[in-house]
Structure formats: structure tokens, C-alpha cells
Amino acid sequence: MSQVSTASAAPADSSDAAVSGTSAESTASAAPASSTGDSASGKARRTAEPTRRGLHPLTKVAVGAVVPLLLLAVWWVVTEELEIFSPIQLPAPLDVYEAGVGLYESGLLAEHMSISLQRVLLGFGVGAGLGLALGSLLGLSKIADLLLNPTVGAFRAVPSLAWVPLLLLWVGIGEDSKVLLIAIGAFFPVFTSVHSALRHVDPQLVEAGRAFGFHGLRLLGTVQLPAVVPPVFSGLRLGLAQAWLFLVAAELLAAAEGLGFLLTESQNNGRTDRLLLAIVLLALLGKLTDALLGVIERKALTKWA
């Protein structure tokens, strides 16, 4: 009896070994399958990354150029083909181009563009710097906010042209008055954005920064300002747009060079072609400086946000 039971137990043991061998084979075969699936999902993620990043920069430029080209075509049709407007009312695009070529050859075009760009950059730098500093102070200090915010809000309501007579009286008609007027225009959008953003920073984030030993300016530069990068740059871009608006206001009233002066001189001389040229150049320079600020914004978002 013991021999029979021993013999019958042997096949059972061999069957168990076969089952275990089969399970081991299935486990071994499953491992490559799972690794293959992981690699496939990784490839899918890498393929989907360019889609999430958005359109190619050249594609964005091409799409953004559609409307300006359509406007240029309509401008050419209504002036050259249909002749709806007289040359005094609306010159043709070719006339404006020829006016630009004439100013370029005389050297006046580069002079007007460079002085206007210099004034905007200086005024924007001063105004944005002061707006960033004062907005940070009022956004971080409740006492400073209670003391200064009503006064700053009252000055913000003053129209831009109201500052011109006072600046001419105090500073004169030189470059300082123009730069100061542009700085006033750039100050308020930056101040408002920074002040409002810092008032709504997550308190837990601030406490975490203090727990790591950050205080004062170090806490502001390391924790608080990086937390509000998008609204800060929105304020900077609005301030830059305001700087170009205030530039025209400054150069219309007291200037002997610049694109604003070119506008006034062209109006007085009946040169509508040069007047339109100045408007187009203001639009192009404004868009160029805004695009450069957008590049800095993307780098700041990549680094801090």
C-alpha cells in the first residue's frame, strides 16, 4: 500500500511542477508585454507633448499676419482701384511707402524712431520700477496700504494731459519732462497689478517661505514675486502700452523730434502720407517692444511659475 501511494504521489508532484513552470512562463512572458506597453505609452506621451505646447512660432506669425495683409489689401483697393478717398484724405500705400523712403534717405526717419524709442524705454523703466516697488510695499504692508492707497488711487484718476502744463512749468520742455510724463503713464498699470496680486498671495506659501528662513526682500524675491509672475507681467505689458500713449501726448505738445512731432508737423503741412507713416511706425514699434517683453515673460514663467 505504501508503494502504491508513493507511486501515485509522484505524478501529482510532476503535475504541480508543470503548473508552476507554466505560471513562471506566463509571468516571464507578461514582463516583456508590460515593458512594451510602458514604452508605447511613453512614446504616446512624447508624441502628445508638441500638441500641448501649441502651434509653431512661425505658424503663429503667419496666422497673425492674415488680418494686417487683408487691411493692406482693402486700403489699396479703396485708394487705387475704387478711388473712394482723395490723396489728402487717405493716401495710397505706395505713397506712404515712398514718404518713408524719402525720410529714410534724409536720415530723419531713423532720428525720429530712435529718439521716441529711447524716451519710451527710459520712461517705462522708471515708471515700471517705481510701480513695482510701491506696489510691493502696499501689497505686503497693511499699514502702508491704508496710508497710501487712497492717495495713489486719486492720482491714478488724473488724465494724462493734465500733467503736461505742470511738468512744463516745473521741469521745462527738455527731455526730462517727456520721460517723466511717460513714466507716469507706465507707473499706474504696473502698480495696480503688483499691488492686487500680492494682496492675494496664498498665506500658506508665505508661511512656508518664512519657515525656510526667508524674510523681507529675500522673501519677496524668492517666494512672493515668483508666485505672481503672470499678473505682474500683465501689468508690465499694460504699462508699456501706456508708455507709448503718453509718448505721443508728450511729443505732440513740446518736441522738435520724434514720431509724435512727426505727426504734428505732417498735420500742419498737409502731409497725410507722413502722418500715416508715423502711425504705422508707432504700431510696429509698440508691437515689437511688446513681443520682446513677451519673450522675457515666457522665460520668467519657465523659471519661476
From TrEMBL:
Membrane topology: Multi-pass membrane protein
Domain ABC transmembrane type-1: 109-294
The keyword Transmembrane is annotated on this UniProt entry: yes
Membrane spanning residue stretches: 61-78, 120-141, 153-173, 179-198, 219-238, 244-263, 275-296
Keywords: Cell membrane, Membrane, Transmembrane, Transmembrane helix, Transport
Chief place where the protein resides: membrane
Subcellular location as annotated: Cell membrane
Superkingdom in the source lineage: Bacteria
Region (Disordered): 1-51
The keyword Transmembrane is assigned to this record: yes
Compositionally biased spans, kind Low complexity: 1-42
Homology family: Belongs to the binding-protein-dependent transport system permease family.
Name of protein: Sulfonate transport system permease protein
